[in-house]
Amino acid sequence: MHWSLVIPLKPLALAKSRLAKAAGGALRPRFALAFAQDTVAAALSCPAVRDVAVVTDDPVAAAELGALGARIVPDSPAAGLNAALTHGADAVRAARPGAAVAALNADLPALRPAELSRVLAAAGEFPRSFLADAAGIGTTLLSAGPGVKLRPAFGGRSRDRHLISGAREIELMGVDSMRRDVDTGEDLLAALALGVGPRTAAHCASLPAQRDPGAGGDG
Fold first, then answer.
1. Residue ranges of the alpha helices (H) in the chain?
2. What is the pTM for the complete model shown?
3. Which of 21, 96, 136, 194 could bond to 110 as cystine, CB 3.0-4.6 Å?
């Protein structure tokens, strides 16, 4: 089975607010874009992925991610994350009604195509399924097979909501890059330990030496 991925990205000026102390206010939007670029590039390199649709209204992100090969879908609902994901899935299926669709976070800078392949192969066993984040609280991927509605419930304690909705949890070992989304300085350090993509790595290298990415905390 080949998948269409839907990746949501809010305007860069509003993205990754909890990363501000670690990356600095001016660099924070650049990190958000770098995370998305590394995520999209890795996803497009995965043999199980047919295409990637990025739902965003940010013109800079749209240009950069479109140049990587992603389809850009304007966030016309402008009603938050889950509305954007539903809209993106609908846009994919308007062209290919039988598409298998998966929502993927835009902040997975350590994403490995081989790990994404493993997760998508497991997802293909169920009508709807999801992968929890490293904390076991949120969700980094939600899948819906052909003819099945995505019904996203991202944000906060989304693992519980996706379980309640009937989606099956994917329980695989060795897919750490798929679980490591980045919201805080500590998250960024953990992603760096796994090995991030080239754009994120370049931005980390540009940080002043005295600034510790872990200093951002949960604020």
1. 20-23, 28-44, 59-68, 81-95, 113-123, 158-164, 176-179, 185-194, 198-205
2. 0.92
3. 194
Contacts of 200 (CB under 8 A, 6+ apart): 31, 34, 35, 38, 109, 191
Place of tokens 């999801």: 130
The identity of residue 129, as a single letter, is S
- Domain with 131, as residue range(s), is 3-216
What Cα–Cα distance (Å) separates residue 1 from each residue in 9, 28, 65, 118, 132?
26, 36, 24, 12, 22
Residue 10 amino acid letter: K
Closest by CA to 51, choosing from 93, 87, 10, 86, is 93
The count of structural domains within the chain is 1
CA 139 to CA 160: how far, in whole Å? 9
Find, among 6, 31, 30, 5, the residue nearest to 182 by Cα.
31
pLDDT in tens, 139-196: 999 999 999 999 999 999 999 999 999 999 999 999 999 999 999 889 999 999 999 9
CA 93 vs. chain centroid, Å, equals 20
Q: What is the CATH number of the domain that holds 153?
A: 3.90.550.10
- C-alpha 4/C-alpha 43 separation (Å) is 10
Backbone angles phi and psi of 169, in degrees to 5:
-80, 130
